[in-house]
């Protein structure tokens, strides 16, 4: 009994020591001698070491973001109604509450198979007396994410990365090997220089920015088209010195390698950052990504090398008028800075189009390049350039690339043309659709220059591709002094930029519609077309239309496993007229700044609307069965000529037989 009393008297002290041990992770060093030591707790507190840093604990099954819009400490965030720093007067100035309110309902009367996912922020109260409902749901884990542990070791980080996905970039392989077999689709196209350097035909494009990168190689058999920006600053010094503006850069002093089979085996040195090869003394044209072979066996005059000839090119003069170029002599002239004509840089290259004729595995047979030249000024800078490759088989003639067969394919241009009347050889006439030879010019919308101005050239507009919704625009500038005098001109310029006289076009219903079968083409329907003339007001124009929306309605037809897209209608929907006024903000509208300009936007958009009708199974009605039995079928249980056997006795007898046989 005395021992039990001693143990019971020591039990509170033991529990206290155990509690302190757990709270301090067993790091205290003070010796406890008696239960009556009054300084024990103080001694423990002064002799424990500092606890290690731990993450803030997160309670399970808890909404950890009750006020996600409260981003400024000790200050009221605008439109954050749950912000504790906002007073009642502050909330009166709010236009809305920006926080997301999510309520989880514990009552459910809908089976899980009905709703796949409910991401609404509002509580949904549904009831159906025909179903077994859940009135109280105490399984909270299904409404909250699992709180993950901290990853504090490399092994944990690696395990999670391997399980959920790693980094998205890969280290570039600098070990290039010259291809020794024939070209296949997607291969780089090799070039050869007069100094026996070997490179790759370049097709400049945007990579990390809008600026043109000349290190992108053209892919064999792949038709490609890219538009990028050349950042020039002063044409007076760069017009004649910039290689990007000179046509000779893209076809002179190098030839195309017809097939890689002509190369002897050997390593290839990759290009360096400055555009030169690792072999010293070898310079690189911006048209190729340079590489150097170790063999000199392939001379520049080898018949397996293909010259690039000049094809039909297009020239745009200083007035913006374009026509087919008429070059004399050896080829296109180099850019020239015209000091007498408002500082124009003439013959600047704005488009390069390689057309390569091939013969399958035998490689490249012929090659030509077509240019678009333009006279540009500093106001056209930075300059947009377009680069394109097209591949054609040498023996193919009168080819035409469809946009689908028959249904449209995503990303292919929408076929559009104008209805014309053709005179046939036999003297008769027929109607047909005239298509532009450049498929990128079929149905187009407005686009802008790098400075935001509206592009007026037809070939520089943006092509409408099937299934791709887009919005594009451009801007025009007017000053306070002249805005009221040019209202009609503004409206005409805006409508021309929006439609480019395409309102009378016909659109092909299929990607392979025949141009002579006019019934397979639908006419563009115009809605809200402006009829009233705009009128001026001091500092502005009234009743101006600056936008148009293109709606293309299509539907899938055919088999459910192989649907074919068919365009069933198209409309040009003009925006409602609006008033544009010069905004007197900051330095504008002052007498000394009356010639300052402001920008107004012209906007065009395209939307593809899927009107596919769901497949409806048609089940035939159940046939009505008319059963007729012969008169003596139940003989001898029932006989019509017997006067003594009644119909009632027949029914009883039949019922007895059915029970007997069924039993």
TrEMBL record:
Residues 181-391, 404-575 form the Tectonic-1-3 domain. One of its GO terms (biological process) is cilium assembly. The keyword Transferase does not apply. InterPro entries: TCTN1-3, TCTN1-3_dom, TCTN1-3_N. Residues 37-146 form the Tectonic-1-3 N-terminal domain. Residues 1-29 form the signal peptide. The keyword Glycoprotein applies. It comes from the Eukaryota. Keywords: Cilium biogenesis/degradation, Glycoprotein, Signal. PANTHER family: TECTONIC, TECTONIC FAMILY MEMBER. Belongs to the tectonic family. This is Tectonic-3.
